[in-house]
Amino acid sequence: MSIRHDALRLTLMYMLAAGVWIFFSDGLLVALGLSAQQMERAQLLKGLCFVLLTSVLLYGILHSHWRLQRRIRRALGASEERLSLALDAAEDGLWDWDLRTRELFFSPRYSALLGLQPEELGGTREAWLQHLHPDDHAHYRQTIAELLRSASQEPYENTYRLRHRDGNYRWIQSRGRLLLDAKGRPERFIGTASDITQRRADEDSLRQAAAVFDATQEGVLVSDAAQRIVHINPAFSRITGYSATEILGQQPNLLKSGRHDDTFYRTMWHALQSRGAWSGEIWNRRKNGEIYPQWQCIRVIHDEKGAISHYVAVFSDISALKRSQRELDYLAHHDPLSNLPNRLLFTERVEHALERAQREQHHGAVLLIDLDHFKHINESLGHNVGDLLLKAVGERLKEHLGKGMTLARLGGDEFGLLCEDCSNAEQAADLAQQLLDCLSTPFQLIGQELFIAASIGISLFPGDAQNVEQVLRNVDSALFKAKSSGREGFAFYALELTEYARQRVELVSALRHALEGNELRVHYQPLHCLSSGRLIGVEALVRWQHPQRGLVPPGEFIPIAEDSGLIGAIDAWVLAQACQQMVAWKTAGYALLFVAVNVSSRLFSRGELDKRVAQVLADTGLDPACLELEVTESAVMDDPDAAQALLERLRDLGIRLAIDDFGTGYSSLARLKRLPVHKLKLDQSFVCGLPHDKDDVAITRAVIALGHSLELKILAEGIEQPEQVDFLRQLGCDYAQGYHFGRPQPAELLNLGPCTHKR
Ligand code: C2E
Ligand code: MG
Ligand code: MG
User: Fold this and answer.
1) Distance 544 CA to ligand 2 centre (A)
2) Do residues 434 and 509 lie in contact, with contact meaning Cβ atoms separated by under 8 Å?
3) Does residue 86 have a pLDDT over 90?
4) Which of 26, 476, 492, 523 is most buried, by the most CB atoms less than 10 A from its CB?
5) Is there a single domain that holds both residue 598 and residue 715?
6) Is 598 in the pocket of ligand 1 (CB under 6 A)?
7) DSSP at 123
8) What is the mean pLDDT of the chain?
9) pLDDT of amino acid 759
10) Residue 754 — pLDDT band, cuts 50, 70, 90?
């Protein structure tokens, strides 16, 4: 526009100057009054001058024009080269769309973005559109249409996908500007294109990572190399209670619970330094002070030089998990109806108990309790009532459990009982009987009384079985035995044990009955002075007048009475009987010096014997000097200190004390010397071999010598032969007892004679 104007102005100026020249120069020549010839020459000269002048002018103009053009061309080339280099460096392609000719130019770099040769892209928009992703067509067309319509010269930017030669689409970012003609109409659209596929992928993953960071349920904490917290996520605040403003810049040890020792943290740091990562369970403290467990993974981040730049800790609050694990564990190991351990837990416990029993060499028992005819309850009263009954049975059985016992519901109407400490079959049988007895009381359910009995199988371990499967199999077959032998009873895995234990249990209940029903009797056996041959006292010996079995000797029921705890009542009863009898004899004028009463070692070890004896003496009015208590050697030596104290208290009551069955236990002579006893009763096992058995002779001689040196009297038990009497007398034995002198008899049959002999 300005070029045309300038050219026009220049031409006009030239026409004016040339016109003025022609006009004035011709006028000047006329004014000079030259001749025609001169005039002709002057005209020629003027013409030549004009040509010369205009030629110089033309030359000047053309010269400067071409020089300018060359300079412009050079500058343009340099600028183009720079542009091309810049585009190359930026890995950008160039596009140029001539809107008038509809031609579209692409730089080689542009086609290279798509793995194509420039000519493969085609020179038109239509050809180019073939490469555009179908989903991007609409948006692209709309953007371009709008731009052309508004003829906006604002920077243009658009992102779309173009198909690469390999068939995949690449994300292309296109930037450009619309160029307008003099009238403001779009005439050219030019710009660059760059492949942003990787950048977009990176941005996508960054966006995803950020979303994960924000949305994850795990708390995230990032601290720098100096252990200052630089970043946390929302879950961190939710779990710990600390907001970003409260925690950023702080040290992570603010969260410490104090539950772990230094070794724990040392191990953690060691793992971080050596492996660059640590994971494990750690207890931390929330802002509200609560301590809770986390599962935490810490990772070390290094910078490009390999130095530690950050630590990233990701943790989850596992307190709920732990809680639900505990609940799950409980559910997995317990029966939901009775809340008792189930078969799984029971089996585990039996397994442990078996291992312990084998390791520590002690004994246990497993009892399998099965309700008899439980099916009838279910069928007649419904499963709800059945369930209630099972629950009630479980509760009642539980009331009878001692320490170290596990009651479990194994399924249906079957309960298992593990007794970790059960030294013998009687104890197990006793327990089984107790359980059977406890079920005999009817259950009050749904307003009515329900009766239920059970059968029990018993297996002892480790005797009966070496592993848990064997124990459970044994106890199962024992239960079968119990069921098939009439139910409402128990059976052992081993038949002999069943019989033996059954008898024992029956005996206990019969013995209890005997005590209440006055079936016990006291017989008295005379005790004689060996030197004078006179009767000096009697020993009270208990018997059981059994309605069917007749007179049962104490050897058959005293041990059972001791195991079942009945011994206390029996001994107290015998003591009272003996004292009463002695008072009666004294009153009748018999010159009997004393009555000897046996005291069980069980009773002796309880230590309150002196009070009982004092009570009986007070009740009967017997002179304490007329009572002698016989205590076995083992009872004294089991706990010598306690025995010493008790014996001293008994002596202080004024009664006499004898050590029974002397020689069968292990006496410490030093102890024996200090005991406040008056008499040793040499056990009959040493007397029976006299006078021929050399060992018995040696022992008897030694015991007599020892006793006398300790100033104790010696009584020999179990004398049956006259020569034993003579022999013992020769050895200096003081007193004697045995069938030779008289068997134990009821008081009324005893021949006491009118003796006034003093001991
Ligand atoms: P022990 O105190 O040593 O009683 C002596 C036992 O020897 C008695 O047996 C007696 O009958 C028996 N005996 C006496 N002379 C002879 C004999 O010449 N030959 C033989 N073979 N035996 C003879 P018994 O009455 O059967 O008593 C056995 C054991 O039972 C007693 O031994 C005593 O330890 C215990 N005992 C008896 N009555 C009681 C009691 O009331 N309470 C307690 N705790 N134990 C008792
Ligand atoms: Mg005795
Ligand atoms: Mg004895």
Assistant:
1) 17
2) no
3) no
4) 492
5) yes
6) yes
7) S
8) 89
9) 38
10) low
| Spacing, Cα 596 to ligand 3 middle (Å) | 11
Q: Are residues 592 and 740 in the same domain?
A: yes
User: How far is Cα 227 from Cα 119, in angstroms, rounded to an integer?
Assistant: 59
* Angle 533-536-542 from CA coordinates, rounded to 5°: 120
Range of the domain at 166: 90-201
Provide the token pair at 331. 């559910």
SS3 304: coil
Token representation of residue 231 = 């970043």
Ligand 1 binding pocket includes 553 (Cβ within 6 Å): yes
Number of residues written out for the chain? 759
Main-chain phi, psi angles of 167, to 5 degrees? 95, -20
Q: Assess whether 137 and 257 both reside in one domain.
A: no
Alpha-carbon dihedral 200, 201, 203, 205, rounded to 10 degrees? 160
Check if the beta carbon of residue 417 is closer than 8 Å to that of residue 366: yes
Place of tokens 């509760």: 395
The CA distance from 458 to 418, in Å, is: 10
In order, the DSSP letters of 330-366 are HHHHB-TTT-SB-HHHHHHHHHHHHHHHHHHT--EEE
Same domain, 715 and 582: yes
Query: Are 536 and 561 a contacting pair, CB within 8 Å?
Result: no
Residue 343 backbone zone (phi > 0: left; psi -120 to 50: alpha; other: beta): alpha
Of 717, 724, 740, the one to substitute when testing ligand 1's pocket (max ligand atoms within 8 A of C-beta) is 717
Q: Bridge partners of 368?
A: 416, 457
What is the DSSP-derived secondary structure letter of residue 252? G
